[in-house]
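Quick question about two entries, pasted in order.
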Amino acid sequence: MSSASSIHSYGPYSFAWDVSGESPFLNQQIQEWSKTKPLDHVTILHYIPITHSTVRKVHALIQGGAQVDLLRGQGGPSEVENTCIDRLRKIGLKVFDNPTEITQSGKEYDYFLDCAGRLSSIPGKEPNTILTPKYGYVELTQSGLQYYKDKSLPVISIDTSKVKLLETILGTGEGIYRALHELVRIEEVYQIAMKDLKVVLFGYGKVGTGIARKLHENIAKVTVIEKDESKSNIDRAKRHFVVINSSNKAAVKEAIKDSHLIITATGIPDLMSREFPEKNGSYDPVFTDKILVNAGGLKEFGPTFTKHPRLILEGRAINFGLEVPTNTRYIDPVFVLHNEALLWIRNHEISQPGIHPVPPAKDALLFAKWKAKWKDNLDVIEESN
């Protein structure tokens, strides 16, 4: 395991790639933890898709004295992930290629820092056992909480925080819009002007809200498909978009027929394969010639659509094909909370088994600092919270 000093001095990379100054809160955490060492000798297994922002987040943990092993992303590797992993390995960090390697290593950890529940079911050394940390878990996403309901250790949910909305609403929406330009290249490849693009969006939770907001600013028509019309933000959605209940299959199919692009943002794996099962050994013809984009952390189109010629990035979250999936300013405070949450377990502020929210005072303080720093329009967050 590399020391914090050797990591800090690693060539031009130096974990100081953020020359834009858009991660002031991680910068502060790095500076403070390098002096106080609050995680001295703590061992951590870390899973978040590995990007430049993830590397900086890990830098903070190591500056705090922790020993960190990482698990690489699932699905096909990206150029950005490969670059980051190469650099991490060159400075001595262990990056596992898959969960089996973790089991085979026989290593044990004090804490798991997780995303989408990927670390929740790694097989243990003994048959029919699951690898668990000694003290607790921190889960980044809402979709991952389903895997932590019955754990006998504290589980802190970052998704419950207002700070997380900066990523899910503002950051993801902006990232998806950039990906449509840079990866899908709607106008160049498909000859569709963005202002004329017709989109059907499945899911109007936090991620869906952000995507719809960003697309609405730039294109002609967004149709929202949502099963839960009791959500507090649905009335606002109806002021801007056509909203169709997912149970109205005829209306949903008609909207799909009239669209160019289908985006999934429900957080439910394989949802589209279940809702639109195979017909004659292939996907429903209503999806012919449609561009299919997943915005969730889990593959939502599922096996029925694997051979669809316009399924982008094989159904993985499209913004993770970008060099910067989420603009740094939006992910910066979220990663600070994900790191800091370890201390709440370590210092016994949170000690009972079960899922726990981010303490409201800590959440409110960081959100206020971010708001003062960046001065973005946060009306959509205030309405969604």
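Here is the second entry:
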Amino acid sequence: MQHRLGRWAADTLGPDTRVDGLERMPGHSGITWAFEVGGEQLVLRTPPLGARRSAATDVHRQAPLLTAARGLACGDAARGRRRPLAEAVGRDPEPSWIPAGRTLHARLRAAVPDVGPPGLVHADFYANNWMVDGGDLVAVLDWEGAHRGDARVDVGWIAMIYDRESWHPAQRPDIAAAPEPEDLVAAYGAPLRGVAWFRALAGMRLAALTAHYLRMHRTGQRPDATWEAFGESVPYILGRAVAVLG
């Protein structure tokens, strides 16, 4: 990557231009690189190794969508295929997850709330996808799951992510400084109904994603040991989601 960026900088900005401080940033979807060119800090997003050209993580797909979305109604340019969550329920790499996953899925289907006003949904909105400068949010990353939908999807997701009860006890210290889920919901700034359902939906989504990526890791299709740690929390995620539904 250093050589390729150096060649790009020389061809684009002049033969004496240097690329310094190249660093791969954290993340589990695409690959993000930080570096400096001529004293300016830049970020480069690349697809994960082995990703299909048409995959949702493909930046060649993301960039035109985000460009086209300027000036349009939220989500008009950000539509894509979505597989049913239930598809992952019966294919867990850990069979012990399946009963709880099916229970949660049935509970969610039995209590679907009315759809709220449409808006732009990021679908993975939490601190790992934020860029902050001096306490100000200056950018939001990872838009491959963006779509037009109910804003409570994002509210439920961030409330689930920072709910300590959703995580294995060994992982809870990592979010000890985070606000309580109820405070996050209140900070949204508008009365919200049915947020509990969207918090439970977020748990179902994360459990399904973990099952998918953990299976890919264990079969060697896309090695990433981080999903083993996520897997330890899946029983807590599913149990907490059912509890939140009441």
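Reply: Strands lie at 19-25, 31-37, 40-46, 118-121, 130-133, 136-140, 147-150. The two ends are 50 Å apart (CA to CA). Hope that helps.
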